[in-house]
Amino acid sequence: MSRRTPRLPSWLPVDPYIMALIGTVVLAALLPASGTAADVAGGASTGAVAFLFFLYGARLSTAEAVEGLKHWRLHLTVLACTFVAFPLLGLASRGLVPYVLTPQLQSGLLFLCLVPSTIQSSIAFTSIARGNVPAAICAGSFSSIAGIFVTPLLAAALLGNNGGGFSADALLKIGVQLLLPFLAGQLLRRWIGGFLTRHKKVLGLVDRGSILLVVYTAFSEGMVAGIWHQVTPARLGALLAVEAVLLATMLAVSWYGAKRLGFGREDRIAIQFAGSKKSLASGLPMASVLFGAQASLAVLPLMLFHQMQLMVCAVIAKRRARDPLEDTSGSAATRKTAPVG
Q1: How many whole angstroms separate alpha carbon 178 and alpha carbon 13?
Q2: Which residues contact 80 (CB under 8 A, 6 or more apart)?
């Protein structure tokens, strides 16, 4: 009899990119960049972040964004989940310090609550669950755009000096390193948009490679500074438990809140998946600018939450796909206003 190779359950997705991130963290722990190497890695990381946001701006279709505004009630609901409900829960987590979370982990958890929603996974899970995919595309895109402006402002207001010495200088860095490249990408989209579309797979690898470089630089700085001695297995376990409660709360708030607001099933699915998740791709570069040498601890909650949200939302999406379809006549008008594709 042939033996079957053990496999993980299909409902338990392990993102290969998360494994690459973990490998990068291990590399930084074993071979942290220091001295001249740290200077080179830091300069490369700064350039990589600027290039990332340049690509974000160049890929964004202004026409599609304007068209998506027609479904404004849904987008406002997602934005309220992302930038109001999440931050309020993050602020409430201050009551867990120092008994459950250390101040540094709580700051990272609060930062997690400030970053924008995802795009790719929101679309994928909405599609699996037979939800409003065009709305999910626009909602994720609007959240990412808003996050470029809203996340730094919320961080300045809520994190204060806990954000690695957040100050006017840090806000200036955000403007130079994030906003200017984004705007430059928007201005040049007319001439380079076609090239980016034709080579989106290669540029996707560049995106992910740039983020790995940011992670390596951040965790190297943390190793050299010795901040990892502040984290114990018990604290990590407590952080996972807190994040599980956070995710469960936002899944419930986004689903039942959308129902109370009168959205149909397809729209509620898009709101739940776009309103309950956080973007690793946007959060990591921002953390490197906001937190400096403390970025390694700041991004740890986001990395853990990212994998947790993929696993939980995969289960929910497959269960939603088996739900009987309800009468969608009430939401037909909203679907007509959402852009296709």
Answers
A1: 31
A2: 275
Residues 177-226 have pLDDT tens digits of 777 888 898 889 889 988 888 887 887 788 778 878 888 887 787 777 67
Half-sphere exposure of 21 (CA within 13 A, CB side): 22
CA–CA gap between residue 323 and residue 321 (Å, rounded): 6
Write down the residue that tokens 């809203």 correspond to: 150
Q: How far is CA 101 from CA 30, 168, 191, 277, 283, in A?
A: 26, 28, 49, 21, 21
In angstroms, the CA 270 to CA 123 distance is 8
Give the span between the Cα atoms of 124 and 233, in whole angstroms.
Answer: 33
Q: Are 59 and 325 in contact (CB under 8 A)?
A: no
- Strand ranges, E, within 153-253: none
Closest among 43, 49, 153, 90 to 298, alpha carbons compared: 90
Query: What is the greatest pairwise CA distance in the chain?
Result: 68
Please give the model's pTM, rounded to 2 decimal places. Answer: 0.76
